[in-house]
Write a structure and sequence with these properties.
With 542 residues, the protein is α/β, with parallel strands linked by helices. Helices cover 38% and strands 19% of the residues. The protein has 19 helices and 18 strands. It has helices at residues 9-15, 34-47, 60-69, 75-80, 92-99, 101-111, 133-145, 164-174, 253-259, 262-268, 282-293, 304-314, 330-340, 360-364, 377-389, 400-408, 418-435, 449-462, 486-504; strands spanning 24-28, 51-56, 83-87, 115-121, 151-157, 177-183, 189-196, 205-211, 214-220, 274-278, 297-301, 318-322, 346-350, 369-372, 440-445, 468-471, 476-481, 511-516. A nine-stranded mixed beta sheet has the order 3-2-4-5-1-6-7-8-9, sandwiched between helices. Strands 11-10-12-13-14 form a five-stranded parallel beta sheet, sandwiched between helices. Strand 13, helix 14 (360-364) and strand 14 form a beta-alpha-beta unit.
Length: 542
């Protein structure tokens, strides 16, 4: 069988190379180096002038930043079209299961017909919800049948409840080679061949580390003296592999320490990484502490002011921040934490990602990533391990002062003067133009003047911190929905109407009209935005 060197020494040492049509499966728990190897395989193929499609459950900016921290420059290849970087969103499993693997691969080839390497990290992001082996087997075999001349790399995130055992068994049947990865408590990472039809390298198992250039080979492991990682599939008998001398490169000890990412530096001193949890929900905070205490040194608090003190005193390696906090808005706390410790990665936990811009807001304020509640344990551990590997602060998407003016400090005062409202509107429009996230103006009229005050009261529960209100007349107000498309105006207006009816005890019917905030000029008369409403309801200005 014709094998091609992968260009990744850790992989080539154990299997000799990759074979088109026979998938390589990398299986292991969070933090084992699975995604690092997937990125290295991608970079090596790009260096060989191949066209690569990388499908990941991670947001593209985070994945590119992780690659950059490993010395892998993938972004230029994205711009040139040599690398197709595709994010697997929550709708991907349903689309794949409805259309089938062949249609899925055809969609990739439509983007670039010459794709020669497809990496899916992890394949479990596409099989979510499938627990029966029959449909899993059909999906996997169709995927392989659709890529007979393409090198296919699939990663599997193990230690997940529910579906993983079935996914592992199915992939063990159809794959060309399966490799099990493990990470031990002392930080050592291992890779072991558990099955191969494609070929064999010089060793069945190796130890490697994550360094400045990615996964770096340290030594071969004698099978009889090593403790095996959790098996991915029952190994098939193979001829004994010849033993070779250790291949760790000779490096200056100090240089090696500097090359190691933050989490390995901790392990080198037998110290777990330090995680600060900021969450006001007692039950959720207790659950998060239970998940993390096995792996990290954990500090927790329920409110923002103590969180800032712990940040200064304990100097955590990463922060898990719930965006909904008492006494201080999560946005304010996020911005303050980023100012105090700009190199400490912050993972924002939120249950409110209804608007398209809601994921982007924490990122422009300094968060390294965003996780959606409810979150699974394996997802949380994976995200934290990824952030702990990153060196340096996340890239600044927006000037800090501009970001705080639009989001961080906006919760203190929602009803603005006309001048302040225009300034907030201009900032929102500029933000939308830069990140392709439009804002919307909602013109609202209440049936009676006394209901406007009640509307302003209930708006605290219906609007976000960054939204703003301008009182135009006795019964009319403008609402600026920052980073929200026109379609969101209907949801917001219905929510306001429901809350107003509950607050007032009346069946108050609001009249409203939505317009694109970007179409409003500095000279626009606010009353012009109400012309779409019935002219007979014109309300005299206050």
């Amino acid at each position: 069988m014709s094998l091609r060197r992968s260009g990744v020494p850790v992989i080539d040492r154990v299997i000799g190379g990759l074979a088109p049509g026979l998938p390589l499966v990398l299986a292991g728990p969070p933090g084992c180096g699975r995604t690092v190897l997937a990125l290295q395989l991608t970079a090596a193929a790009l260096a060989n002038a191949d066209i690569v499609a990388l499908l990941s459950a991670e947001p593209a900016p985070l994945l590119l930043r992780q690659a950059e921290s490993l010395g892998l420059a993938l972004e230029p290849h994205v711009r040139s079209g040599q690398l197709l970087l595709l994010e697997l969103d929550p709708r991907a499993p349903a689309s794949l299961q409805a259309a089938g693997s062949k249609v899925f691969i055809e969609a990739i080839r439509t983007e670039h017909p010459s794709v020669s390497l497809i990496v899916i990290d992890p394949i479990t992001a596409l099989t979510s919800g499938l627990i029966e082996e029959a449909p899993l087997r059909l999906l996997a075999r169709d995927l392989i049948a659709a890529t007979p001349h393409t090198t296919l790399v699939l990663t599997v995130e193990t230690e997940r409840p529910g579906t993983d055992a079935a996914v592992e068994r199915v992939l063990a049947e159809v794959c060309g080679t399966s490799l099990a990865l493990a990470r031990r408590k002392d930080g050592r990472r291992t890779l072991r061949v558990t099955k191969t039809r494609a070929g064999a390298g010089a060793a069945e198992a190796v130890e490697f580390r994550i360094g400045a250039s990615g996964a770096e080979l340290i030594r071969e492991i004698a099978a009889e003296t090593d403790v095996a990682p959790r098996p991915f599939a029952t190994p098939t008998p193979a001829s004994p592999a010849p033993q070779a001398a250790a291949v760790a490169p000779a490096q200056d000890a100090a240089a090696t320490r500097e090359a190691q990412p933050r989490d390995l530096k901790r392990h080198a001193k037998a110290e777990p990484a330090r995680i600060l949890i900021v969450n006001s929900d007692d039950a959720l905070r207790s659950q998060l502490e239970g998940w993390l205490e096995e792996h990290y040194q954990v500090f927790a608090t329920t409110e923002g002011f103590e969180a800032l003190s712990l940040l200064v005193e304990e100097k955590p390696d990463a922060i898990l921040l719930e965006i909904s906090m008492p006494r201080v808005t999560g946005y304010e706390l996020l911005a303050a934490m980023h100012r105090v410790a700009p190199t400490t990665p912050i993972l924002v936990l939120t249950g409110e990602l209804v608007r398209p811009g809601n994921r982007l807001v924490p990122l422009v304020l300094g968060a390294a990533d965003v996780a959606v509640k409810p979150i699974e344990r394996f997802v949380l551990l994976h995200k934290l391990e990824t952030l702990l590997r990153l060196e340096g602060p996340p890239p600044q998407l927006l000037d800090p002062a501009e970001a705080q003016a639009l989001f961080g400090l906006s919760g203190r005062k929602r009803v603005l003067t006309s001048a302040d409202f225009r300034e907030r509107l201009a900032r929102a429009v500029a933000f939308g133009e830069r990140f392709d996230v439009p804002s919307t103006l909602l013109a609202i009229e209440t049936p009676a003047a006394d209901l406007l005050d009640q509307l302003l009261s209930v708006s605290e529960a219906a609007l976000r911190f960054e939204d703003a209100i301008l009182i135009v007349s006795k019964r009319r107000a403008l609402v600026l929905l920052v980073a929200a498309e026109l379609a969101q105006a209907t949801l917001v207006s219905e929510r306001l109407q429901t809350l107003l009816a509950r607050e007032s005890g009346r069946s108050a019917r609001l009249r409203w009209n939505a317009s694109d905030a970007g179409a409003v000029s500095e000279q626009t008369d606010w009353r012009d935005l109400f012309r779409a409403l019935d002219a007979t309801t014109e309300d005299p200005a206050s």
